[in-house]
Structures are given as structure tokens and as C-alpha cells.
Amino acid sequence: MSGNLEQLMQRTTAILLAGGESSRMGTNKALLPFRGQPLWRHLRDVIASAGVRQVLVSGALPDLREGEECTPDVVPGLGPLAGIASVIGAQGDALSKDFLLVVPVDLPLMTPEALRWLCVHGFHAPAAHFADHALPALFRNTVAFRQTLGTLLRATAARERSIQALHAALGAEVVALPDGLATALTNTNTPHEWAAAGGAGAQ
């Protein structure tokens, strides 16, 4: 890892979104076993391997080990924006990093390389994400970002409280992912998708 990339990753805090309803999976995706541990811990370790020193977990997770923390949504049922806002609110002034890397828990094949690629090619923009994938996403942790997040959360229509709406409001950069890293974006919302990604335990 080059010095500049290492410094960029150290300026980044990650938020792992592990609090979804998992209605199509039939069980909590974050707790599904993957490569010897619950999926959320696997993703946490992947993010850390990318060089991010602070990984914050959004969601209400059971059986936490010593030193592990998670932040439940202040207002449940409002989607990923509420998860991001709840983590930011819980951290307060302690969240001083320049960038926020937001990663959903339903990407079991995510790699450190893909996350670093997003950060390197998106750090100059107010927000960035891969083509055809709203998440993972990189956000500049600015006053404008937080104000926009708060405004969208007050919207009554669900589509106006979406990650896509946040990207549109911020003027997000769309980053192309090399073909060799494309499998990192394999999404798993159903038992069939989960099994195809090499997972087990979904009902």
C-alpha cells in the first residue's frame, strides 16, 4: 500500500450497515455464518483489512464480545440513512474523520481491494459509489453532508429517504470498478443469492 493510500484510509471512518429487516432472506443477514463467523464480523474484518482503523456498526446485534459495540437506529424502519445518522449522532464530536465509508452487510464477497479502489477514485468528490450500486459509498464528512442527510430523513416519501436520493443531492461521483473486482459487489438478499455466494444457514 502506498503512503498516500494509507493516509487516505486512515482519514476514513467506516459505517457497516447491519440493521436491515432482512425480510426477503427470512432471517437476520448480519448473523448468517460466513467463513467461520457471523457475516457482520466478516465484513468488519474486510473493512479493517482495507486500512480503515475505525469501523462503526449500525444495528442492534446480539452476543457482542468484549470491546464490540453497535448503534441501533434512533428511529427504526427508516432505512440506511437512519442508520448512518444514528451512528453519527452517537459518535458526536468523536467522529472527526474526513471521510465516511458506508458498507452494507449483504455483500459477503466484498474485498479490501474494491473498497480501496472506491476511496482512491472517489475521495475528490462530495460522494462516490460504483456504477449501478448505491452502496458501498464514500462521503465527505462535511457540514453540507450532515445537513443534507438530516433534510432527507425528514422527507415523508421513502424514495426521498434513500441512499440514491442522498447521492443525487450531493452530486455523487460514479466510479467504474475493474472487471477483476466485480464479484465484490455480489448482493445477497435472498436465500438463493446467499447460497450462490457460498453462504449457508439462510431459511
Summarize the structure in words:
There is one protein chain. With about 200 residues, the chain is α/β, with parallel strands linked by helices. The protein has a single domain (about 5-195), classed as Spore Coat Polysaccharide Biosynthesis Protein SpsA, Chain A. About 35% of the residues lie in helices and about 15% in strands. The chain has helices at about 5-10, 40-50, 80-90, 110-120, 145-155, 165-170, 190-195; strands spanning about 10-15, 35, 35-40, 55-60, 100-105, 125-130, 135-140, 175. Strand 2 and strand 3 (about 35-40) form a beta hairpin.
In short:
This protein has 203 residues and is α/β, with parallel strands linked by helices.
Give the tags:
203 residues, alpha/beta, Spore Coat Polysaccharide Biosynthesis Protein SpsA, Chain A, six-stranded mixed β-sheet, two-stranded antiparallel sheet, globular
Number of strands: 8
The CATH superfamily turns out to be Spore Coat Polysaccharide Biosynthesis Protein SpsA, Chain A
Which strand order spans the largest sheet, edge to edge or round the barrel?
4-1-5-7-6-8
Q: Note poorly predicted spans.
A: none
Percentage of β-strand residues = 15-25%
- Gap between N and C termini: 40 Å
* Biggest β-sheet strands, sense, barrel: 6 strands, mixed
Give the % helix.
Answer: 25-40%
Shape: globular
* CATH structural fold name: Spore Coat Polysaccharide Biosynthesis Protein SpsA, Chain A
Radius of gyration: 16 Å
Structural class: alpha/beta
SSE topology string: HEEEHEHEHEEHHEH
Report mean pLDDT, rounded to a whole number.
91
Query: How many domain regions?
Result: 1
